[in-house]
Design goal:
It is built from five helices and five strands. It is an alpha/beta fold and 165 residues long. The protein has a five-stranded mixed β-sheet with strand order 3-2-1-4-5.
């Protein structure tokens, strides 16, 4: 199973592609940046085009997406929600099922602690994927964590949300 993990954001969206196995194998990771000076519609179009390209290049079986974390900054939550919608649309256009995970579920699946900090998550991602150092930038590490979360929970996900094709 090949999983495309996405850590959505309007300014920076992280992506990570992981192939399941023992151990799981990292395939690709990076970030998509949108130009902050552009109108929202153009930024979402850039995000969609880039995610579509990542999907076409890596042909994942499933897209795992971190859900919107509602915090005190409503504008941040709205922009992350918009980016999430674009990611879901890109997956749907490619006929790829989407699984969504709360940030605490991702942290728990990867580190065993739902309140782990970003450095702890990145360090464990490096360990699980047998990388020499934690992935950078943090958005790419978070996306790899989302992909690993799906691989670790996919038997359950297959029964509850449709799982992979």
């Amino acid at each position: 199973m090949i999983v495309l993990g996405i850590d959505p954001g309007l300014t920076v969206t992280g992506y990570g592609v992981v192939e399941g196995g023992h151990p799981p194998r990292p395939v690709a990771a990076g970030v998509i940046r949108t130009p902050v000076e552009e109108p929202i519609g153009q930024r979402l179009a850039v995000l969609f085009a880039n995610l579509t390209e990542v999907i076409a290049q890596h042909r994942p079986d499933v897209v795992a997406l971190e859900t919107v974390f509602t915090n005190r900054n409503l504008n941040t939550a709205i922009s992350v929600g918009r980016a999430s919608g674009v990611a879901i649309l890109a997956a749907a256009q490619g006929g790829i099922p989407v699984a969504e995970y709360a940030p605490t579920a991702v942290k728990s699946a990867v580190t065993g602690d739902g309140s782990a900090d970003k450095q702890g998550v990145a360090a464990m991602v490096a360990r699980l994927l047998r990388l020499e150092s934690p992935p950078s930038p943090a958005d790419a590490a978070d996306a790899l964590a989302v992909a690993l979360c799906h691989l670790r929970t996919s038997p359950l996900a297959a029964r509850t949300v449709g799982g992979a094709r």
